[in-house]
TrEMBL record:
InterPro entries: IolE/XylAMocC-like (IPR050312), Xyl_isomerase-like_sf (IPR036237), Xyl_isomerase-like_TIM-brl (IPR013022)
SUPFAM superfamilies assigned: Xylose isomerase-like (SSF51658)
Full protein name: Sugar phosphate isomerase/epimerase
GO MF annotation, one: isomerase activity
Keywords annotated in UniProt: Isomerase
UniProt keyword Transport, yes or no: no
Xylose isomerase-like TIM barrel domain ranges (all copies): 19-300
Length: 322
């Protein structure tokens, strides 16, 4: 298992400078943003697809530093009811898949997206309650008319380009739990899998270890994010886990994102890594930093240190059993 980082963290640095910094920390992989919410500061697919020389230069910049690209990521909402917004995110996805094939990258990460509640809706609608029955009708319409048809087509497109799709299980989108991921995978095929981020499991009340077992036994984990969450035991009783306050309102929120080891202890993260190994995941653990209490450098360094400790101890455990 390799340790990597989601490079949007260093979007204010030039690619070469950011890669040097990542390599200096002993990491072996990078996940690179190619559009949508992550942006494309380090990698513009449209440019690289049109210029073979730039494509080779980009690939060399990564590989010459002993790094690999674990995934290209273009998290957006290709099912957005406003067609121009959906089209922009769809085009980012298509170009990212084409670029991934050229670079030999196995996985493209994104969101499932979330449609509106009818054909002429203006905003996404994320139903999360079974009653009143309106919500069940909205959910059925979304999956039957938007989610399954779109991702069935895109899964075939990605498969034709020898790429897997890692959908991040994220609140606000149609695929946000192990069950919804497996539902879509059953309908659209095994090209669809999870970009599993435990931080989004914790705030939904899901144990990441159990999520790993559920998805891993189905071979449905394509990529893995390392980000933590802390739940405030007082604020959660006021706002619930579906707290709608801005992330910046950290003092009063029910939960907030933290760097690895600052929401849950290293033993918990060791259990997560052990579960990944147990279900046969042997790819990349990609650090994502969204910790409002730490600077980029501090949060990244702490996450690297904690995860390196876990991975070393896991490796020593394997050697002991041998």
């Amino acid at each position: 298992m390799k340790l990597g980082v989601f490079m949007v963290l260093f979007g204010n640095r030039k690619l070469e400078e950011a890669l040097d910094y990542v390599a200096s920390k002993g990491l072996k992989a990078v996940e690179i943003g190619t559009g949508g919410n992550p942006g494309n500061a380090h990698c513009n697919p449209a440019e690289l697809l049109e210029n073979e020389a730039k494509l080779k230069e980009f690939k060399h910049a990564v590989e010459s530093r002993g790094l690999m690209i674990s995934a290209l990521s273009c998290h957006g909402n290709p099912l957005h009811p406003q067609k121009h917004l959906a089209q922009a995110d769809h085009e980012d996805f298509v170009n990212t898949v084409k670029l991934a094939e050229k670079l030999g990258v196995e996985v493209v990460n994104t969101f499932s997206g979330c449609p509106g509640d009818h054909e002429n809706a203006k905003y996404p609608n994320w139903p999360v309650a079974p009653w009143p029955n309106d919500y069940q009708e909205i959910l059925a319409w979304q999956w039957e008319n938007k989610v399954i048809p779109y991702w069935t087509e895109q899964a075939k497109f990605a498969s034709d380009h020898h790429v897997k799709i890692g959908l991040e299980l994220h609140g606000g989108f149609s695929v946000h739990t192990p069950a919804t991921l497996l539902r879509l995978r059953e309908a659209a095929g095994e090209t669809i899998g999870a970009n599993l981020d435990p931080s989004h499991m914790w705030w939904q009340g899901i144990d990441p270890v159990q999520a790993i077992h559920i998805l891993g036994r189905a071979g449905a984990i394509h990529h893995f994010h390392a980000k933590d969450t802390v739940i405030d035991p007082i604020n959660v009783n006021r706002h619930g886990l579906t707290d709608m306050q801005p992330y910046t309102n950290m003092l009063d929120r029910a939960w907030q994102f933290r760097s690895v080891g600052y929401g849950h202890d290293v033993k918990t993260w060791a259990d997560i890594i052990s579960a990944l190994r147990l279900v046969g995941y042997d790819y990349v653990v990609s650090i994502e930093h969204e910790d409002g209490l730490m600077s980029i450098e501090e949060g990244f360094s702490k996450a690297v240190s904690n995860l390196q400790q876990v991975l070393i101890e896991e490796s020593l455990g394997d050697m002991w059993w041998v």
